[in-house]
Specification:
Helix content is 59%, strand content 10%. The chain has 196 residues and is mainly alpha-helical. It has one domain: dinb family like domain (Four Helix Bundle (Hemerythrin (Met), subunit A), Up-down Bundle), CATH 1.20.120. Strand 2 and strand 3 form a beta hairpin. The relative contact order is 0.18. Keywords: Signal.
């Protein structure tokens, strides 16, 4: 009984950590929209990224995060930071905000990066879902840096940050395999769920 408080000190953070990861979005995307509006298709593309990212980052270890394929290439954690920046662009467009240089609070904490990325993608997906062609045509990806301002149509969002984030999520899978921690082979990307 003397060791009970010590046991609680050890177990409570572990349980809290496990509960947090269980509440993150995109562990499963097997349910899908029933309509094919342009916004729903874009939303589903974001969901597919979220699902791939969730499983590419699930169970990463410190040695995986430190892995760097070459001396001049990005490490896994640096790749995660880059994907988080791309997800900020996607979310900014979905919110109809202007993304300014330095708007984002950088972090190198893996759990925080993972959660911010997944939750940002989830919100962006929700905001795009059901939008009409007219609504998407009015949507813009907006940037500002000092006195400089630029904006682009949603097409640039698709071939820019969205495609880039999918590409880099694939790199994470390769990096973790190279560092000795391959992704769960039961993940079925076609069905959007973990197989039996």
């Amino acid at each position: 009984m003397r060791h009970f408080p010590l046991l609680l000190l050890v177990l409570v953070p572990l349980l809290r950590c496990g509960a947090q990861s269980d509440t993150l979005p995109y562990a499963d995307i097997s349910a899908y929209p029933t309509d094919y509006t342009p916004g729903s298709v874009l939303s589903r593309m974001i969901d597919a990224l979220g699902f791939r990212y969730y499983w590419a980052t699930h169970g990463l270890r410190d040695e995986d995060l430190a892995y760097r394929p070459t001396s001049d290439g990005r490490s896994t954690i640096e790749t995660l930071e880059h994907i988080q920046g791309l997800s900020d662009m996607i979310l900014s467009a979905a919110r109809r905000d202007t993304l300014g240089r330095g708007d984002r609070e950088p972090t190198s904490d893996f759990n925080e990066l993972r959660e911010r990325t997944l939750r940002g993608l989830e919100e962006a997906s929700r905001l795009f879902r059901g939008q009409s062609a007219t609504g998407l045509a009015e949507q813009r990806l907006r940037f500002s840096a000092g006195a400089s301002y630029s904006e682009f149509p949603v097409w640039n969002l698709i071939n820019g940050p969205l495609a880039d984030a999918i590409y880099h999520t694939g790199q994470l899978v390769v990096f973790r395999r190279a560092s000795g921690n391959p992704a769960d082979p039961r993940v079925n990307h076609f069905r959007g769920r973990v197989g039996d």
